[in-house]
What does this fold into?
Amino acid sequence: MANGEVLLTRKLIEAVCELAKYWSGSITVMMEETKEDNDQIDSKKFKLDELPFKLAGGVTTSLKPRGGED
It folds into this structure.
């Protein structure tokens, strides 16, 4: 999103805040950016500088499950 804002679910924010209670270090959430519409009912705009964690985007590697097909 423009203006330093991101669209995230409140459920994600609550989960990361709960994790932060048990983790003394900094937290970085990694996710891919998408331009697709989101139909999540609890989505909300958040300012990047107000998030209680770092947000890293542009994940380009593809993760494969262990024991999966190559």
About this structure: The chain has a mean pLDDT of 79. The chain is about 20% helix and 25% strand. Residues 5-56 form one domain.
